Amino acid sequence: MSDETDRIAAFRRRLGLPAIVDVHTHFMPEPVLRKVWAYFDAAGPLVARPWPIAYRDDEQVRLKTLRGFGVRAFSSLVYPHKPDMAAWLNQWTAEFAARTPDCLHTATFYPEPGAADYVRTALAAGARIFKVHIQVGGFDPGGELLTEVWGQLSDAEVPVVVHCGSSPVAGEFTGPGPMAALLQRFPRLRLIIAHLGAPEYSEFLDLTERHDGVHLDTTMNFTDFFEDASPFPITEYRRLRDLGGRILFGSDFPNIPYPYTHALEALERLNLGDDWLRGVCHDNATRLLDLP
User: What is the CATH number of the domain that holds 136?
Assistant: First the structure.
């Protein structure tokens, strides 16, 4: 671990980065996290290949690892796959944020009666970022049960990390279409499209260009592991550079099958410039999330 810590420290020195902001990390109730890890171990349908968890450690060890990497702010992304989970998950993340000051208070929701109520409760309690997994949840983000939820989030200007791309397995409601329709109704939403929208990269870049509130996170993108399955088109590097102010670093820590440093070095080898990389790894998220 010391070698990895040293390499990330050297990366930060090269860029003059005071720290790293990681918008896509997972901290969950222990029983839920164990089930997630078991799913990866079994190479479930959304994995479909060997996926060794690189940071399979106790919670306090994982926190110490992130802090050792110089990560000053991160998220505890949770997501329900069925009704009657989200409110309980939100209670846990609120408690986790209270005891973990460098973790952004995170929340989630699911299309179900009462969703607007528990989202209102989470916002009142200080939630700074939400997570929705369209693929795992298998729901239409534009459904009637979420109308009031999206309205609240739009008014509050709280970002939502959305896994809506069709990688690794397309679902009925994945892809850019449902997000485009949602943004037609709520154009002021602050959405963070996970994994740069893989594999519909070009379409989600289009959406980002059309809507000022749309951002993209780099979670797993450009790593050897991800490029093997969902390569980002070289022809879109120019647009990626031009939209640099709305690209945010995400890692998927701890559920990644390679060292954390590889995600950072994979971005560096794009050669899109130090200013671009500083923005992605720190400045853009600091601005979006209004961090000190």
Answer: 3.20.20.140
Mean pLDDT value across the chain: 97
For residue 47, the model assigns a pLDDT of 83
Strands of the 160-163 sheet, one edge to the other: 106-108, 129-133, 160-163, 191-193, 214-217, 247-248
Q: What is the pLDDT of residues 180-201, one digit of tens each?
A: 999 999 999 999 999 999 999 9
Q: Which amino acid is at 128?
A: R
The type of residue at 63 is L
Q: Which amino acid is at 201?
A: Y
- Rounded CA separation 154/171 (Å): 25
Distance (Å, whole) CA 273 – CA 255: 28
The tally of domains found in the chain comes to 1
pTM equals: 0.97
User: What is the C-alpha separation between 208 and 191, in angstroms, rounded?
Assistant: 9
Convert the pLDDT of each residue in 233-285 to its tens digit: 999 999 999 999 999 999 999 999 999 999 999 999 999 999 999 999 999 99
| Cα separation, 137 vs 174, whole angstroms | 10
Q: What phi and psi values does residue 74 have, to the nearest 5 degrees?
A: -155, 175
176 vs 164: CA distance, rounded Å: 7
**Predicted confidence (pLDDT) per residue in 71-109, tens digit:** 999 999 999 999 999 999 999 999 999 999 999 999 999
Q: Which residues contact 147 (CB under 8 A, 6 or more apart)?
A: none
Whole domain around residue 117: which residue ranges?
A: 1-289
In DSSP terms, which residues pair with 162 in a beta bridge? 132, 193
Q: Is the pLDDT of residue 167 over 70?
A: yes
Cβ atoms of 25 and 252 within 8 Å: the answer is: yes
Alpha-carbon dihedral angle through residues 105, 289, 247, 4, given to the nearest 10 degrees: -60
Average pLDDT over residues 141-156: 98
